C-alpha cells in the first residue's frame, strides 16, 4: 500500500455519508484521510464537527470544489444530485466515487460518463455487494463456463422491507421529484447491478412496476421484470419493499447444471453433461442422473462499503483495479429506466436503450415529477453514522 493517503471529501452527511465518515474516522479505510465534508443542513455539519473537529465543513458544494482541500469526493446525496455533482467535480479535476444509483435518468448518466472520460480521473461507484464472495463465485462460474450455456436467471429479492416511517424519514424519498423512482432505484440497484455483472445485459425487457401498492408513496414499491438475452436465455427479477418476511434466492441455470444462492450458501448442482445434447441424443424419456451437489459459504465477511472506498483510494494512489468502475453504473440504471418505460407504456423495451426511448422516459418521468407532492431534497433524519445491517448482503 502507498504510504500516502487520499485526501477525500464527503458530500451529503445523511445515513450513508455519515456511515462513510465514521468508517474513515474509525480507521476502517486506512488509505483515506477525510479532509472536508459538505451538507446543506447545518445540523449535519454540527455532527461532523463533533466527530471530527479539524475536518473542514462546507454548506456550498462549489466552494468545496474550489477549496483545494481534497483530491477526490464521495457523493452521498439523493440520487438526482449524483450526475451534476460528479460532472462538476470532474471539471474541477477531482476523482469521484458516487453512491448508487449512478443517477435517475440514463441521459444524465451518459453525460456523467462522458465527463469522466474527458477528465481522465478515477471514477468509482458504491456497488458494495460486489465484494460478496458468493456473488464473485457465481460470476466466475457463469463466465468460466462451469454452468455451460446460460439459460435462465431468476432472482426473488423481496427482503428489502421498509415501512411508511422509513419513506417519511426524508422529504425526497418515495416521490418522483425527489427520488425519481422506488425500489428499483433505491434498494434493488445492488441486485440489478449484480444481475448484469454476473449474467450480462439482456436485449429486451418487460416489466410491471406497481406504484404505492403497500406504502403511501408515489413510486413503485413492487416490480416484476422479465428479460430476454441474445442467446435465448431469460431472466426474471422480483422485488418489493412491502413483503415480510422476505426472500433472497438467486438461481442461475446453464445447460451443464445450476447454482442456487440462498441463506448465505451457494449450492452448485453439476450435471456432468450437457442438457442441450442430452435432450437431442437420449433414448430415454427423462433423465435419472443425480447431479453432484457442492456447497460453498463465504470464508470471510464482505469488505462492503469500506472495501469499495479503500480500493477507490488505492486505484488513485497506485493504479490498482476498482471494485466497480463508475461508468458501469449505467447498466443497472438502463434496466431500471427500461422497466419504468415498459410499465408506463405497457410494452416490451429493446436494449440498449435507444436515444428515443431514453428521451421518452425523461418526458414521462418529468410529467410525474411535475405532479409530485414534494420537491424537497431535504432529509429529516439524524443518523449516527452506524452502518445499518440493511445495507449489507442480507440472506434472511
Ligand atoms: N451503498 C449503500 O448501501 C447505500 C445505502 C444507503 C443509501 N445509499 C445511497 O446514498 C444516497 C443518500 O442516501 P441517504 O439514505 O444517506 O439519504 P439521506 O437523506 O439520509 O442523506 C442525504 C444527505 O444529503 C444532503 N444533501 C442534499 N442536497 C445536498 C446538496 N445539494 N449539497 C450537499 N448535501 C446535500 C442532505 O441534507 C442529507 O444530509 C442515495 O443515493 C442512496 O441510494 C447507498
Please characterize this protein's 3D structure:
This protein has 396 residues and is of the alpha/beta class. The chain has two domains: 6-129 and 303-324 and 380-391, 3-Layer(aba) Sandwich (Rossmann fold), CATH 3.40.50; 132-300 and 332-370, Dihydrodipicolinate Reductase, domain 2. It contains 13 helices and 15 strands. A nine-stranded mixed sheet has the order 14-13-12-11-7-10-9-8-15. It has a six-stranded parallel sheet with strand order 3-2-1-4-5-6, sandwiched between helices. Strand 4 (72-75), helix 4 (82-91) and strand 5 form a beta-alpha-beta unit. The protein is globular, with a radius of gyration of 22 Å. The two termini are 36 Å apart. Bound molecules: nicotinamide-adenine-dinucleotide (NAD).
Sequence-ordered SSE layout with sheet pairings:
Elements (H helix, E strand, L loop, with lengths): L5 E6 L3 H11 L6 E7 L3 H10 L4 E3 L2 H5 L6 E4 L6 H10 L3 E4 L7 H14 L3 E3 L7 H11 L6 E8 L6 H5 L14 H4 L2 H11 L4 E8 L8 E9 L5 E7 L7 E7 L2 E6 L2 E6 L4 H7 L10 E6 L6 H15 L10 H17 L3 E2 L4 H16 L26
Parallel strand pairs: 1-2, 1-4, 2-3, 4-5, 5-6, 7-10
Antiparallel strand pairs: 7-11, 8-9, 8-15, 9-10, 11-12, 12-13, 13-14
Helix pairs in contact: 4-5, 6-9, 9-12, 12-13
The site of nicotinamide-adenine-dinucleotide has 28 residues, from α1.
